[in-house]
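Protocol step 4 of 5: obtain the predicted structure for the target chain.
Materials: sequence only (see below). No template structures provided, no constraints applied. The aim of this step is simply to have a reference model before the mutagenesis design in step 5. Sequence pasted as it appears in the construct record:
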Amino acid sequence: MKALSTALLVLLAGGAAHAAAALRDGDIIFHTSRSAQSVAVQRATGSRYSHMGIVLLRDGKPYVFEAVSTVRYTPLAQWTARGNGGRYVVKRLRDADKLLTPGAVARLHARTADFAGRPYDLTFEWSDGRIYCSELVWKLYQRALGVRIGELQKIRAFNLTDPAVRAKMRERYGDKVPMDEPVISPVAMFDSPLLVTVESR
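Step 4 output (structure tokens):
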């Protein structure tokens, strides 16, 4: 019985390592955050997913470069554990084999320096002073590779009538909501035809 348990643990560990190893530089990962604003983001955008980041390998290990309290690298296992139920979805550029050359990957890594350490943007402004999660991934791809994943929208385009959304908007903006501020939402990137799903857990 002990030998069987040991063998099972080895198989499980090998499967987890294989799953992590299957992720590539530039993969985009989504989950449902348990943060205070998650419900408002989901209802405003009509999306199941409220947080995202970009997978980048460091010393062969997968990390998620993300905007939380600050823009930072988070180990993959730690990032996925923060999501609701530990569930997540990974997407990849449809033409990744052609577009994500070693040179392109190097540019993605290099451009992280533009954002690392920046504070999280609670008011979703289209500036680099503060950064929110989907803005980080969108700008990283656009600036490093010239690829725009998802269409920008204005705040007025979202569902602002939901009570949870209205409460969060009052908290963040008071009576002065910048209705014409450009925004990139997680769902706009999730639904982009430039991406394909490579893993869902």
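Step 4 remarks: Helices lie at 2-22, 38-45, 76-82, 96-99, 102-111, 133-145, 163-173, 186-190. The two ends are 30 Å apart (CA to CA).
Proceed to step 5.
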